[in-house]
Design brief:
This protein is α/β, with parallel strands linked by helices. The protein has helices at 7-21, 67-81, 114-134, 162-172, 194-207, 233-240, 258-262, 270-363, 365-370, and strands at residues 26-37, 43-50, 57-65, 90-100, 104-112, 152-157, 181-186, 214-218, 246-249, 265-266, 375-378, 381-382, 394-399, 402-407. The strands form 3 sheets. A 5-stranded mixed β-barrel has the order 1-2-3-5-4. A 5-stranded parallel sheet has the order 7-6-8-9-10.
Length: 413
């Protein structure tokens, strides 16, 4: 009969083989695909490995961090990396390889290397920034013009966040009495749902974009690890290309997320975001006041200069008036002389015209005819010489009281 093993015997054999092969814990590189914290304090992980080229799953294994170990590893990891263990994170774990006849192979996590994850996070963040830069959009939102008086504010935040309350109080109670109109678009500001939630809020704002001057993304306080959600390519892509300027106040002063990097303006806290908006309007008001003062000063200078010129003109007019008075008598004398000369010239011309009229009267053919002279015409033309007629021509002789027609019989010179 062929040698065989019972299932339990095979399991024990595998167990002994693995125990011999992995007598000491080994460091395992993997990505967390799923993670669950049990009420008992244990943490259960699904670890995976993907092919570099295609992201195809090439390995998968379950792992457990028992409560006693997890209570120590979790705060240590968070303090070193500034992030919490979560799905999608790449980790380097010190694991004991175990086999159970019922539950199969599992990894018992004993330690974690934060430096590995920090390096992976930095690489991932750098890759996101490189993609945004290559796409030519990393500074796109910074180029959006910020209104000089940004009073209509769309706010993306958690409705219950203390930071949102601080932001609204700061705007409402600003020392200058400026009025702001805010509209909250609620979103999840930490955890796995942050990307989807904030992008959805941006899409809603875009539907009413003409009603707003600026978008403010804020979250109050919280752990530095919560900022990991804002190192996200898709979220940064939406913020960079958004058609309104975005003010981000989502982290502490020392922390800068990728969303902070692509936003129009980055401030450290929600309160600082409110102070920025108030200061923006106050700067505009100061500029208006300064312009008004400059205009008033310029106007005073213009009025003063014009007054001086007017006074100078009045003084010159006084001189002109005195000159006019002096010349007025001479003008009146010249006027009188001109009037007398005109009268004499007119009288002389009248006499000359009378003589001309007499001359014309004496030269008038009618007058000459009355005096006994005659006027002979041939074919309507005056006969001035005997050469103008020939024997046989018909001529007309005009007298004072009529005319008669005759035929030339003889011409004598």
């Amino acid at each position: 009969m062929t040698e065989s093993y019972s299932l339990s015997e095979l399991g024990k054999c595998i167990k002994m083989t693995l125990k011999t092969a992995f007598s000491e814990p080994v460091w395992v590189r993997a990505e967390i695909s799923e993670m669950h914290e049990n009420v008992s304090g244990h943490c259960y992980l699904d670890l995976i490995e993907k092919a570099d080229d295609t992201d195809v799953l090439v390995a998968k294994q379950k792992a457990t961090i028992w409560a006693f170990t997890y209570r120590m590893l979790k705060p240590y990891f968070e303090s070193e990396t500034g992030a919490t263990l979560r799905a999608g994170m790449k980790v380097l774990l010190l694991c004991e390889v175990e086999f159970h006849e019922v539950y199969g192979v599992s990894l018992n996590v004993r330690d974690i290397d934060p430096a590995f994850t920090v390096g992976e996070m930095a690489v991932r963040r750098a890759e996101i920034i490189r993609r945004l830069t290559d796409d030519g959009i990393v500074d796109m939102n910074k180029q959006q013009p910020l209104a000089p008086v940004p009073q209509r504010v769309a706010v993306i935040s958690s409705a219950t966040a203390a930071g949102y309350g601080d932001f609204c109080d700061q705007l409402r109670n600003n020392v200058f009495g400026y009025t702001f109109y805010t509209k909250l678009f609620p979103a999840t500001m930490q955890g796995a749902q942050t990307e989807q939630s904030v992008v959805a809020a941006l899409d809603k704002i875009c539907d009413f974009i003409d009603n707003f001057d600026v978008v403010v993304i804020i979250r109050g306080g919280g752990a530095t690890s919560d900022l990991v959600a804002f190192d996200n390519y898709n979220l940064a892509l939406h913020c960079a290309q958004f058609p309104l300027p975005i003010i981000s106040g989502i982290g502490h002063q020392r922390d800068e997320s990728v969303v902070d990097l692509v936003a129009h303006t980055r401030v450290k806290t929600p309160t600082a975001a409110a102070e920025f908006l108030v200061a923006r309007i106050n700067d505009f008001e100061k500029n208006i006041d300064e312009m008004a003062q400059n205009v008033a000063f310029s106007a005073r200078e213009v009025v003063h200069d014009e007054l001086l010129r007017l006074q100078q003109r009045i003084a010159r007019l006084g001189v002109v008036q005195r000159v006019c008075v002096r010349h007025d008598a001479a003008l009146q004398h010249l006027t009188m002389r001109l009037r007398n000369a005109a009268k004499m010239a007119i009288s002389s011309e009248e006499k000359r015209m009378a003589l001309v009229e007499k001359s014309i009267e004496y030269a008038d053919p009618a007058t000459l005819l009355q005096r006994g002279f005659t006027l002979t015409t041939k074919h309507g033309k005056i006969v001035k010489s005997v050469c103008d007629v020939a024997p046989g021509d018909i001529v007309t002789t005009h007298l004072a009281d009529g005319a008669f027609t005759a035929m030339v019989q003889q011409r004598e010179k």
